[in-house]
Amino acid sequence: MLLMLSGLMGCVVGGGESAWSFDAPGSITATVANGEISVRSAEDATAVISWEGGGFGKNAWPDVRERGGDVVADADGGLLGGGELDILSPAGTPLILTVERGSVEVTLDQPASIDACVAAGDITLRLPEGSYDIDERIGAGSISEGILSEPGAEWQINVCMGAGSIDIETYVPEEEPTQLKE
After folding, report:
1. Per-residue model confidence as pLDDT tens digits over 113-170
2. Exposure pattern of 113-131 as b/e (b: 16+ CB <10 Å)?
3. How far apart are CA 55 and CA 96, in angstroms?
């Protein structure tokens, strides 16, 4: 144990909270090793990504940047980092979400294409009524669908799960957009 701790003495332990904003991204890609990705609809064309988490060294903070008009938030800190990415996504912005251990929760007021994969954990998608072409792949666990897949539909939903559960449902959005932490 002492040998293991002495190896960490040169590492920086850190974390906390931070936020980034981007105007009208082409897509949003988010990756978390340990934790959660939550996505809600933004009020306008500005994407906002908030982080709360920590870890050792470079794993204490995600790498969030714009690349070719797309937003990439990489919080893949391996076993030494983790936390929560909260995303406000502009209407119709494609989402690519990956979590190794944890969950993905998406509630949108406007349809969008979504790719969501979790190795171990849960995926919950609450989507506005509409037509969706759904592809699901699950290793061990359960799928609960409150929506029918319509092959060839404009909005593509691809979900994959190693072990856990997938829940996809539609709803009628409220007049006011859903917001994250107030």
Report:
1. 999 999 999 999 999 988 999 999 988 888 887 788 899 999 999 999 999 999 999 8
2. bbbbbbbbbbbbbbbbeee
3. 23
The DSSP string of the chain is -HHHHHHHTTSPEEEEEEEEEEES-S-EEEEEEEEEEEEEE-SSSEEEEEEEEEEEGGGGS-EEEEETTEEEEEE--GGGEEEEEEEEE-TT--EEEEEEEEEEEEE-SS---EEEEEEEEEEEEEEESS-EEEEEEEEEEEEEEES-B-TT-SEEEEEEEEEEEEEEEEE---SSPP-S--
d(CA 29, CA 91): 15
pTM as predicted: 0.84
